């Protein structure tokens, strides 16, 4: 069941011991477990069995080439939000016909690239975007497959920075404007209206907002049918939350799929799913080494070689990530509260405050859990720190999918003007 487990006294990713991996790759690094990715993908699809659907993995959660290839091999499509993500999806082997393109700020150039690639659908988020897309398609002599992203004005109980479905959020077309915009889209000859899209936020662990939003969309779809606009696709976005805290079990794909069946199942459309976090989140760890332990006057600090630039979520969303000592800890080992921090020069570079951990010392390895989604993709080189490697394990083997650049390579992107 679990693909990160203690064996022979140390934490393993599948059959690879993390200390061995750390030796080979150097710390910090991200590691992803193939078996977990595959299991999450299968469980999600099984929940929707019998309902026509297309699963487009949200690449913003994890754009690692080997992760996306693993999912593409199982039949996944991709939800992309930039030309860069689209090219990465194609490179990973996702067929163009399984790619949907979302986002409020697509440029005309990005639209043209998507149309030339022949993707499944462009999810348009505003009236001006619709007009631009119609123009781009007409100029290329192509027909753009379009879904309109609607804002259902539903509050999702999640961190305010990742809620997207309220009227005041920048995403989607207001529900009451939607019929008119659909009519306009249907009248534009370079567009083919294929569907409606929504996405109310991320890390949602309560099914009620999904039910409310899907119910509103069902009403819209029925109204449009009366208007003579039949939709092939209902793209319900992503957003299903995962357990970050060990031992908690938020509703999973089965409960989510039940809501989808109840609210949208009768409409006969293909449901497009865009899960990101649920597929990749608990399939990844960030492995880091203890640089030193500092006993302050008021607090104790465990200083890691990974920082907020490598895993931004705690600093940005006060997110909780489990911290696993890589060396197995005997059951009776005393636990003491300690602040787990990185080396970056900001107090926000804190992974956990007062976390109960066994005694750890310089050189020990720890693994930050649930780091497979919105981890490496949100990393930066802040404080002159190179992006860390990403490794995929599969059974007993591993592959470094992205290696650590050396400082020379990192600096090679910079140059000085000749007048300085
Ligand atoms: C349009 C869209 N689809 C899918 C996702 C993926 O969401 P999650 O990782 O929460 O499943 C997001 C991010 O929240 C999104 O903005
Ligand atoms: N980056 C966020 C999720 C954003 C979802 C994007 N729409 C997180 O780490 O939780």
UniProtKB/TrEMBL annotation:
Annotated GO biological processes are: lysine biosynthetic process via diaminopimelate
- The chain positions of domain Orn/DAP/Arg decarboxylase 2 C-terminal read 29-372
Which SUPFAM superfamilies does the annotation name?
A: Alanine racemase C-terminal domain-like, PLP-binding barrel
Pathway connected to this protein: Amino-acid biosynthesis; L-lysine biosynthesis via DAP pathway; L-lysine from DL-2,6-diaminopimelate: step 1/1
Tell me where in this chain the PTM N6-(pyridoxal phosphate)lysine is found. Answer: 60
Recorded GO MF terms: diaminopimelate decarboxylase activity; pyridoxal phosphate binding
Keywords, A to Z? Amino-acid biosynthesis, Decarboxylase, Lyase, Lysine biosynthesis, Pyridoxal phosphate
> Keyword Amino-acid biosynthesis, does the record have it?
yes
Reactions catalysed according to its record: meso-2,6-diaminopimelate + H(+) = L-lysine + CO2
- Give the required cofactors: pyridoxal 5'-phosphate
Q: Which residues bind pyridoxal 5'-phosphate?
A: 239, 274-277, 374
Its EC number is 4.1.1.20
Q: Where is the active site?
A: 345
Q: Where does substrate bind?
A: 277, 313, 317, 346, 374
> Which EC class heads this enzyme's classification?
lyase
Question: Per its UniProt record, what CDD domains does this chain match?
Answer: PLPDE_III_DapDC
Where is each Orn/DAP/Arg decarboxylase 2 N-terminal domain found? 35-280
A Pfam entry, by short name: Orn_Arg_deC_N
| Function, in words | Specifically catalyzes the decarboxylation of meso-diaminopimelate (meso-DAP) to L-lysine.
Q: What is this protein called?
A: Diaminopimelate decarboxylase
Name of the gene this protein is made from? lysA
